[in-house]
Amino acid sequence: MAHIDYFFATISPFTYLAGTELEEIARRHGATITYKPMDIMGLFARTGGTPPKDRHPNRQEYRLQDMERRAKRVGKPLNLKPAHWPTNPAPSSYAIVAAQAAGGGDLAALVSSLTRACWAEEKDVAEDGVIRDCLSAAGFDPALADSGLLSGAETYGANLEEAVERGVFGAPFYVTDTDQRFWGQDRLADLDLYLSGKL
Predict the structure, then answer these.
(1) DSSP 103-117
(2) In this predicted structure, what is the pLDDT of residue 130?
(3) Burial 5-39 (b: 16+ CB within 10 A, else e)
(4) Average pLDDT for 128-137
(5) Percent helix, strand and coil across the chain, each rounded to 5?
(6) The domain 3-195: what is its CATH number?
(7) What is the pLDDT of residue 40?
(8) Within a 10 A sphere around the Cβ of 45, how many other Cβ atoms?
């Protein structure tokens, strides 16, 4: 059975635009997924990336154009300059870690809900109330927002270290159990072909 380690950031627009396509691909191929939320700004600092605000204006302009096109392509609403971005991704990431450990809900829906809150609903995913609402909507106990904070923090830190060690440098990033790496939601079709044995 194939396995995919899914490295992502709850404040990443491209994680939002990926939606639940990864989960659909995994279902088709009987693959399992481990969700690994990480500190994207920390990852940039460790792997030669540049935070969006520090990029050359040409890159900033292209990023916004590309985001808008991608949103139209997948039919998702998108605010190119959300009110609460960047924000602290740690609290929402801890909640995902806790939800994955607890089980019983839909992790794909939780990630989708949190990223949509940031990029389409003008909500701050660092706020406890927003996180609780997203947990509840995805079928998890909203109290997970306040539980396991220490283990959440440890896992969040470990995910960053693992990402660096395994060649990850952006989000979303998909790594198979055969160490095939796919960066960006626009590479999901390639992941699908790879799992089909066509790449």
Answers:
(1) -SS-HHHHHHHHHHH
(2) 98
(3) bbbbbbbbbbbbbbbebbbebbeebebebebbbbb
(4) 98
(5) 55, 10, 35
(6) 3.40.30.10
(7) 97
(8) 13
